[in-house]
Amino acid sequence: MKKIIRQILTSRVYEAAIETSLDEAVALSLQTENTILLKREDQQPVFSFKIRGAYNRISQLSNKERAKGVITASAGNHAQGVVFSARRLGIRSVIVMPVTTPQIKVDAVKGYGGEVVLYGNNYSEAAEHAAVLKRSSGLTYIPPFDDELVIAGQGTVGDELLRQNPGQLDCVFVPVGGGGLIAGVAAYIKNLRPKVKIIGVEPFDSDAMARSLEAGKRITLPSVGVFADGVAVKTVGRQTFKLCRQYVDNIIRVNTDELCSGIKAIYQATRSIVEPAGALGITGLLKYIKTTGCKQKTLIAINSGANMNFERLRYVAERTLVGEQQEALFAVTITEKPGSLKRFCHDMVGDRNITEFNYRLASRQKAHIFVGISITNEAERYTFSERLTAAGYDNLDLTENDLAKTHIRYMVGGKSPVVRNERLFRFWFPETPGALVRFLDATRGNHNISLFHYRTQGGDFGRVLIGLECPEKKSGKLERRLDALGYRYREETDNSAYSLFL
Q1: Residue 406 pLDDT
Q2: Deepest of 104, 142, 286, 394, by most Cβ within 10 A of its Cβ?
Q3: CA gyration radius for the chain?
Q4: What number of other Cβ atoms are within 10 A of residue 68's Cβ?
Q5: Please, what are the domains in the chain?
């Protein structure tokens, strides 16, 4: 018997974890003419599959290792899996978390009996400090994914799937971060039922495993997205990469709008709300059906976790319509004269619903309107744009413009006649006190803030839009300061939506 299979079958996860249910999403099954099943890892005591690998690793420590305790670095589900497991076994646990970690997560770890050490502004700095503490204290480090016993613990999900669904099974869709879950599930299922396809699902902005498999070697991403923070991993594990190369059939990438639509799909099927990373499986499954047109298949998506901040739901709801291709966003130029808006609505919009409309007087000749239109599919979006063009309306499709969807839709009409040499930047600020002050220190001098927009989204990072007056224009001086600050950012000065509305 292969070692990994033996480790999965002899793992000790059920001393702390439960065997979660495999539920059919009946409405989705009927709608797509397939059998769609959801593996409910959101039912675990810590609302995530992470308890499986953490407990399996900790439970097999020697008596000497148990006496000293365990340590890890995490700001998410792995931290809760470690502290829950350590408490069950009566072992001391220390969790190193970035100082930017939201208080709700710090309190959750403390609530399970873990000792929290706040260090660094990101996971990498926290992990480095955890390594230092490990060496000085003798604590045993519990890796989040790149460990045989952790992978085996996660692999018990695959064992349950085959027992709960012994009949037809065509594809299993697995969220991918560092690769622990998909490595364990794929190794187990492929050895027992090699014809079942194992398909990983990653966000476009956190696709380390997909890029690594394409390159044939592990790739380190320069940055990762912040929405699906549960899979925001720059470098996948050595062991997980090796197993994925051997057993995984494909990786599907999804965007934020599609992921929000996946969260809604799970809610409608189960009335439970999963975190963004937890919805990756169903999002990839639905995208697979759309692209392949498959029917009469049995497809399983793993709901990997449900640690969702309530404050994030507003953002999810706003982006869901676009993800479901039920809304299209446009910038449309109309003449600034009486009756022009009525003609636009009557002649062009017709019997469609207007989902959003933003406008402010900026010129006596032309008006730029930001409008949302209800649609039934992607083709209708393109058809609407073609009709606008044929009727003489200049228009810009903003449906896939993240700057427009995140910021500009709330700021239409903000043009200033006095601003000079403005450059526009999007930032991902850590949601922690002092983040803005650190930014102001980094840009102090002759950079006047000419625009600022922030809206909380309930995540670890806030999305901020900032305009700066830069007399020196693009000399590289500002970029060096921003790079030193360490916040992820992107310049949007050339974005068409910015030039139209701001």
Answers
A1: 83
A2: 142
A3: 25
A4: 14
A5: 3-44+155-320 (3.40.50.1100), 50-141 (3.40.50.1100), 325-400 (3.30.70.260), 417-501 (3.40.1020.10)
